[in-house]
Amino acid sequence: MKYRKYRLKREECENLFGYITPYKPELKMREYDVFRGYYCGLCKSMGRNYSQLSRLGLNYDLAFLGIVLSSLEEEPDRFAREGCISNPLKKKPVALENRALEYTADLSMALIHHKLRDDWRDEKSFKSLFADIPFALAFRKSAFKHPEKHRAIAESLERLSALESESCKVVDEAADTFGKLMEAIATPEYIEDEGVKRALGFMGYNLGRWIYILDAFEDMENDLKENSYNPLLLQYEYSEDETLEEFKSRIVERVEFSLTFTLDNVSKSLEVLELYRNREIVENIVYMGMRFKMERILGKKGDEKS
To answer: For labelling alongside 95, which of 69, 71, 229, 289 has CA 20 to 30 A away?
Structure first.
């Protein structure tokens, strides 16, 4: 599965995590600029607080978390027109750092480092070992700032690794473990309101569960080729007597039901969160972007880009 296979190139990192994206056709141009502003703001926060190379770990899924957490702050976010390391001459809106983006940048370092180390340990992947170099020092700094979060991430990944070793056949059990990892990430220590914490935790848990199951469905072909662990293939007893397309057709309705139920839970958590801004963008991502992505991967949409 992709979550066990980090790659070095930035665009590949984005694909790795890039399930939580907006549905661009239904976003106003101003809203899309704001979305990109937070995305670029997170990227710059990673570079500022860690290193320029650490920005290779930027991904859409944690950018979404950065937007949600930023929108919970009563004080308005500030934007500036700045260039980018990939295109320094073109100025564009960039969200200036706030504690939400700083926290998201911190946890990005933790998540990526843990996974790269996991790949090196499990697969002896020199590519992962090399890719981890810019994240090693960043990880220590992040761990010093968020020891409990790092402990929770490490425990979840260790549990996932054990489930893979046992060839766990219950996709819900593996997805639950990744959900708990995302639940920990989605609840910053600085948030004191218990109701907000519960809503964020519920949102994070269901985001993780949704990402894991969708990732498993999308990666079935590669996992078969590489003889890698995939709980969907095991739970629904894939057999060489059927083609992969026949297998997908056999299980797709049940997978879609599970994903839709989980996505509805994400929506419920958002409904109780008091967002002071950006609700249109967040709802676009959850109600349309994620649903579009899900339907495309399940084969119920064409190749139209969101």
So the answer is: 289
Whole-angstrom distance, CA of residue 3 vs CA of residue 261 = 22
Residues 6 or more apart in contact with residue 153 via CB below 8 angstroms = 110, 111, 114, 181, 184, 185
Q: Which two tokens stand for residue 173?
A: 């059990």
The helix/strand/coil state of 28 is: coil
Among 97, 108, 81, 95, which residue's Cα sits nearest to residue 36?
A: 95
pLDDT at 157: 87
142 contacts 119 by C-beta, under 8 angstroms: no
Distance, in Å, from the CA atom of 158 to the CA atom of 115, rounded to the nearest integer, reads 10
Q: Rounded distance, CA 153 to CA 108, Å?
A: 11
In the predicted model, is pLDDT for residue 303 greater than 80? Answer: no
Question: CA 202, 205, 208, 211: dihedral to nearest 10 degrees?
Answer: -50
Task: Report the alpha-carbon distance of residue 186 to residue 75 in Å, rounded.
Answer: 20
- Per-residue pLDDT at 111: 81
User: DSSP secondary-structure letter at 94?
Assistant: E
Strand partners, 93: 81
Q: How many whole angstroms separate alpha carbon 204 and alpha carbon 68?
A: 11
Helices (H), the chain: 10-17, 29-49, 60-71, 99-123, 126-131, 133-145, 147-165, 171-185, 194-218, 220-226, 231-235, 244-272, 279-283, 290-297
Say how many C-beta atoms besides its own lie within 10 A of residue 245's C-beta.
10
Residue located via tokens 């590669």? 222
CA dist 93 and 17 (Å) reads: 23
Find the distance separating the first CA and the last CA of the chain, reported in whole Å: 23
With H, G, I as helix, E, B as strand and everything else as coil, classify residue 149. Answer: helix
Question: What is the residue type of 109?
Answer: M
pLDDT tens for 131-181 read 666 677 788 888 899 999 999 998 998 899 899 999 999 999 999 999 999
